[in-house]
Amino acid sequence: MGERIPNWLLQRSHISPNKPALIFEDQVWTFQEMKDIVQDLQAKLASSLKEQDRRAAILMKNHPKMVWLIHALQQLGIEAVFLNHRLTTTELGFQLQDSQTNLLFYDETLAEMANKLREENPQLRIYTTTQYESFPNQQLEIRDEYDLAATCSIMYTSGTTGKPKGVQQTYGNHWWSAIGSSLNLGLQEKDSWLCAVPLFHISGLSILMRSVIYGMPVYLMEQFDEEKANSLLQSGQITIMSVVTAMLSRMLETLGMKTYHSSFRCLLLGGGPAPLPLLEKCVEKGIPIFQTYGMTETASQIATLSPEDAFKKLGSAGKALFPAQIRIIDENNREAAPNQPGEIQLKGPNITSGYLARPEANQVAFEQGWFKTGDIGYMDEEGFLYVLDRRSDLIISGGENIYPAEIEEVLLGHDAIIEAGVTGIKDEKWGQVPYAFIAARNSVSEAELMQFCRTHLAAYKVPKKIIQVEALPRNAANKLLRRKLLEYLEQEKQS
Amino acid sequence: MGERIPNWLLQRSHISPNKPALIFEDQVWTFQEMKDIVQDLQAKLASSLKEQDRRAAILMKNHPKMVWLIHALQQLGIEAVFLNHRLTTTELGFQLQDSQTNLLFYDETLAEMANKLREENPQLRIYTTTQYESFPNQQLEIRDEYDLAATCSIMYTSGTTGKPKGVQQTYGNHWWSAIGSSLNLGLQEKDSWLCAVPLFHISGLSILMRSVIYGMPVYLMEQFDEEKANSLLQSGQITIMSVVTAMLSRMLETLGMKTYHSSFRCLLLGGGPAPLPLLEKCVEKGIPIFQTYGMTETASQIATLSPEDAFKKLGSAGKALFPAQIRIIDENNREAAPNQPGEIQLKGPNITSGYLARPEANQVAFEQGWFKTGDIGYMDEEGFLYVLDRRSDLIISGGENIYPAEIEEVLLGHDAIIEAGVTGIKDEKWGQVPYAFIAARNSVSEAELMQFCRTHLAAYKVPKKIIQVEALPRNAANKLLRRKLLEYLEQEKQS
C-alpha cells in the first residue's frame, strides 16, 4: 500500500529517456544520460564504501556533479548528509560527529574545509570528485524500488535551545512533497524549474526530486545571479523558479521596467515572511508570485498561496497542500478560533520522520501525529494561513535560518561572558540580522568578541552588533526573554 | 507515512470551494456546494444504517444523485458495492449475497430490479432516492482523514473459472491511480473531464475520484451520446474524455470532416484492444488519442501510450504509469525477453488489495506483490507494452467484459445440456460477441436455450449463437480448450 515505489531515477529514465533532465550552463543531459552517468558513478562509489557506512556527507556547491552524487547515493541506499559550506568547520564537524558520518565527498573549491574536517576527525574518509571518479567500478545489484519509509537525506537545523538537530527526510517525504506541490501548481508538459537556491537546502534538493518524479528539466545555477535569472525568465525557457525574499528584491531591482515571458508561470517565494511592498510590486508587474510556507522538516512547501488569491490575501502563505493539514493551537492547547494567533502545527506525509537520534526533541516536537513548529500564526475564516513569526526567536537573514541559541552558545564559550542573548533586528537588505546582548565578568571589546564569533560561526551568523548590558531579561523561571532584548536597543537609542 | 490522507472531499472543498466540481445538463455545482449536499445526505443516510452494515449497494444510472451518494458513503466509511444495471437480478442477487450486502440504494428508473432483488432476499433493505432524501438528519462525527488501506468500493468481475469475484478498491488504490495518471497526463488549471462511461465501472468512478483529488470539474452524461459528446469536445469546455472503442467509432462516424477544439488534449482509450484503422484515423485527424491498459483490479489505467508515441508505437498500450511496474512472465516462469509474449504481471499501489472473501483466488492471483492478470502480451526493446489477448478467454463486447465461464455455468444449469463452451467471435459493431457450443443429452432448440440464457444473463452476455456439437475440445487433463471452439465454427462453415 504505497510503502514502496519504483526506483524513481530508473523509472523516469525508462518512461522519459529522451526528455532533458538537467541544464547547466550550455550543457544538457537527458534522463537516460543522467541515469547512465549515475549508474557508472554508483559502481565507482561502491568501492569506497565500508560495510558499516550508512551515511555519506556531501560538501559541494551547485553543480551537475553534485546532482549525480545525490542520485548515486540514493541508488546505493546511502543516506546523504547535506553540509552547508557557509558554515564553519566547527559547525560542520559537529554535524558529522552527531550523524556518525565517516565518509565525505567534496568538490575542489571546498578542499580546504574538507581537509580541515579530516584533521579534526581522523576517522573521516574524504574524497574529491576527481578521486572518486577514478575508483574502479564495482558490480552492484540494482535497487528496483525505494522504501518510502527509508531515510533519503539529512539536513541540520537548530531549535530554540541546544545543538543543531539532523532532520531526516525520507523517500516518502520527498515523494509526497512533490505530489502535493503538483496538485497545487499543476504539471505541464513544458514545465522547467530554475534552481538558483543551494542544493544542500531543502529548497534546492526538492527541485531535483520533483524533476525526476515529474519528468521535468531543471536549470541549475552554481550560484544565484539576478541578471542571469532575469534573462532566463525572459527567455521563455523557464516556467517555475524558487526564490527567497532577498533574491526577489535583487531581481526586481535589476529588472527595471521589463517583465517576464508569458510562459513563466510561477515564482515560488519561500524562506520567511515577505515584506508587503515587494509582493505589491510583483502583483503590479503581473509576476505570478506564489507565497509559501515550509521548512526543512516539511521537505519544502506545506502551504502555498496561489496568484488568484495573491492580491486578496496579500501576506498570507495560503492553504495547506492537498495531502497536508494545518491547525493553530492556542495557549490553552485548544484549536484557536479564526484570526486568533497560536502555534502553527502541521500534519502530513511530507513531514520528517523525526530528528536523528534525538528522542527527547522528537517527543517535544510531535504530538499525536502533529508536528509542532513553534512558529506563530493564525488562519482567517476561509482557512488562509498567516505566519506572524517564524519560531518565536528564529532569525531569517537572506533566506538562511539563524538560531539565536547557537550564537548564544558560542558567546558563552568566551571566558569573559556571563550571559548572552541574541535576537533579530530588521534589515533592509537581508530582512533580518542578528544582534547580541551580553553581560561580561571582565572588560572585553566588541571587536574581540566579533573575532571570536567568526572562528566559530558562519559569516552570516556573526552578530552585526554585540551590546554590553548589566543583565539579560529573564522570566520567573529564569528563562531568557529574547523578545525583550529589543527594548534594550530602544533604551540605547534614547540614551 | 502516507497511510492516511485528509478526507478528500472536505480537503478539496476547503482548498477550492468555488471551483466547479460537477456539470450535468445545465446545472453546475462547486466543490463547496457538493460538500454541503453530501454532508446533508450523509446525515440522512446515517439514519438508515444498522450497526452491522459495512457495505451498501448502489443501483443507479449516471446522475448527480449517484455522485452525492458515492461521496456520502465515503464520508460514512461504508464500502460501496457498485451494481451494473445491465445485469440480471440473478447475477446481481449473487453479488449482494456474496458481499453480504443488506442495504441497497437505487434510482426510480431501476425500481423494478430493486424490488425483484428484495423479493429474492427478504433481508435486503432497499431505498430509492426520494426515500432516503426524506430521512431525518442524524448528528455525525466528521471523518477528518481517510485510511488509504481501507476498502472504498467493490466491483464484480469474473475470472476464467468460477463465480464472479468482488474486487476491493481501497482509498489508496484510487489515490495512487489518480496520482499516477496526473504524472503522465499532466494537470492543468483548465482541465475538465467528460464522463460518458458508467460510474458503476472503474472507468467512470475513477473520473470522480480524480475530480476531487485534482480539483477538476467533471461533465457527467447520463448515457453516452456521440452527438452530444462531439459537440462538447468541439466547444472547448472539455480537455479530457475517457472512451472505449465502440464509443470512439460512433463519435468518429458522426464527426465527419470536422475535428475537436484545440484545448481538447486527451482522448483516453481503454477497455480492450483497439483496431488499428481506428487509431490511424485519429492520428490523421490530429485527435490526441492515448491508448491505455487497465482493469477493475488496477483501479483504472496502469499503462498509457502518449500521443507523441501514438504513431511510432501504434497498437501499444504504452509504458507503466510512474508508481507502477509491468513485467512479462513466460511459460517457464521467467521474465520474457523483449518481443517475447507471456503473461502480463503488474505491481503498484493502485492494484486491488484482493478479491473479497476469496482466499484461494487471491493466492492464485498474487505472487510476491505481483498481480497475475492472465492477459497475454509482450514488451518491445524500449519497454512499450503490447496487449495480445485480454485473459486467454475474456470477451470484450462494446467495452463490457464478458467471461465465458459465467455463460457456461448458466448453460450447464439447463437440464438438456451435458457440456458447454463459450468463446468470442469478431464483430464489426461490438468488437466481439459471445458464441456458445454445447453437447446436449436430449434434443433442445436454440431458441429455447436463448430464452433460458436471457432469464439468467444480462442481454449483452446472451450468446449470439448456440451451436450443438458432439463433444467439446478438451486437453488431457480434461480442461476445456476454448480457443479450439473456433475450429468447430470453421468446420460448420465449410460443411
UniProtKB/TrEMBL annotation, chains A, B:
InterPro entries: AMP-bd_C, AMP-bd_C_sf, AMP-binding_CS, AMP-dep_synth/lig_dom, ANL_N_sf, MenE
GO molecular function, one term: ligase activity
Domain (AMP-dependent synthetase/ligase): residue spans on this chain: 16-356
Pathway: Quinol/quinone metabolism; 1,4-dihydroxy-2-naphthoate biosynthesis; 1,4-dihydroxy-2-naphthoate from chorismate: step 5/7; Quinol/quinone metabolism; menaquinone biosynthesis
A Pfam family that the UniProt record links to this protein: AMP-binding_C
Organism domain of life: Bacteria
Chemical reaction(s) catalysed: 2-succinylbenzoate + ATP + CoA = 2-succinylbenzoyl-CoA + AMP + diphosphate
Domain AMP-binding enzyme C-terminal: 406-479
Signal peptide from the UniProt entry: none
Enzyme Commission designation: 6.2.1.26
CDD domains: OSB_CoA_lg
This protein's UniProt keywords: ATP-binding, Ligase, Menaquinone biosynthesis, Nucleotide-binding
Described purpose of this protein according to its UniProt entry: Converts 2-succinylbenzoate (OSB) to 2-succinylbenzoyl-CoA (OSB-CoA).
Family: Belongs to the ATP-dependent AMP-binding enzyme family. MenE subfamily.
PANTHER family: ACYL-COA SYNTHETASE (PTHR43201), MEDIUM-CHAIN ACYL-COA LIGASE ACSF2, MITOCHONDRIAL (PTHR43201:SF5)
Entry-linked HAMAP family: MenE (MF_00731)
Full protein name: 2-succinylbenzoate--CoA ligase
Organism of provenance: Lederbergia ruris
UniProt gene name: menE
